[in-house]
């Protein structure tokens, strides 16, 4: 139980307080002090140093203590019953049907008197003061207000006497003092409960084997346990008040914000820190249906030991790509959702399948999965499997210095999964499943790596076309992630085109402005989800433009120049494949994505064949 000190300005209030204490209800009252206003702050600090956790004070003294200290203060407020008695005495003294009564004093001393005019049939004038200097002025204003009687303290009584006006001293009774003591006692119980809960939480946090932070809904650190201090290499005072995003830049601000708004379930993700990789679990603490705070639990992850063979002491591992999840999303909601799922996949070493139209974005996603996972300190090896024969795939993967050997302990990323031979797919299945591999001589060797495959087509499409063996499909089915291209998303296509346009203008030192019509024309074209085609088209558009503004007419002229009408010879004798593609385009209204899906080929392959046979419709369609 805490201790309470009472500071009062008059001897009468000291006696009244002692009378109340003799009732035995307030055992935690430590002392009752007669206090002059000029000494109030000093005595309050002395009481706090002596162990007082709450102070009870009145009027200006209470206001000064609140202003100059951080000690909790309960104010003694004149009760409505006490004011009613004073008003009745005033009416007896004035003997008027509707007397004018002025009340002056510190504003924190009074109860609500808004209905006193009606209740007591008087005209009540209030002159609340904010400080001691203001009180003297308010007393003079009350004396000059034309009131029949003044009610207030010593300053008001003196002003009334000087003006020759009757007055009543504003005195407290046991009623207001007892109310203040009860309020202080209830406040003390609440503080003790809070301290008890905080102490229990501190013991709980300090007894954990993981670091822990408590955050407010704005993401600022409220407290940290000792293990977190060790992980961060900072003291509690340095951590408290810091935005958690300053301590861990990898933490997603949007994720914490949505957790506070939507009260989402706990989420986990791997973050990088100078002390190493940390697995952070964010748990919202909900009170009365709202998120009151967030508990962040951090556990240090052990790095995978590399068992890759050394080359005479030299590190022969290929350089790692520097991409992280924060580098991938340009404000594209669909891609943001994929990144959120990828953060979860980054925490495991299970084999993973990525698919989407943008091969460069797939590579960046794979690199981010590696760099933000437990194998980030080891090698990241990438290999494109398209247009490789069976023997080339076998040698490049399982040869003496093949990709599997180079990726030992790290991550092996294989693009173009649709081109991997069935025999190689079977070997990859055993590599991921049993952690064993065979070299070119057929010898079984242990393998420790994470396998990531990618393709423009989904697993279901690959399986339906017979380009994926059933065992590998089953292995990857629930660890498959679509990586949508921002170019194909309405909310980000405009941003992507403008960003690339400005970058190319700087690169070629040829500064142009893209008009709204030109931008609309570019957004309406089908780029197959790949920024490479967009980049080359924009580069030529910028280089050939003789005007500063590039509009939709400039875009259309370049399209027509790049895609001239087919020659008579070509039109007279179309190949069967050209006829098939032409019919499919007609059937789908020129939509390349739907046509490619209908023909069972990628949009990039369809585009190459259309250029080969000059099967270009007059309008590009998304």
From TrEMBL:
Citing just one GO molecular function, the answer is:
sequence-specific DNA binding
Query: What biological processes does GO assign it?
Result: regulation of DNA-templated transcription
Q: Which domain of life is it from?
A: Bacteria
The PAS domain extends over 197-242
Domain named Sigma-54 factor interaction: residues: 328-543
Which keywords belong to this entry? ATP-binding, Nucleotide-binding
What is the name of the protein in this document? PrpR N-terminal domain-containing protein
This protein's species is Candidatus Enterocloster excrementigallinarum
The organism that produces this protein has a lineage beginning with: Bacteria, Bacillati, Bacillota, Clostridia, Lachnospirales
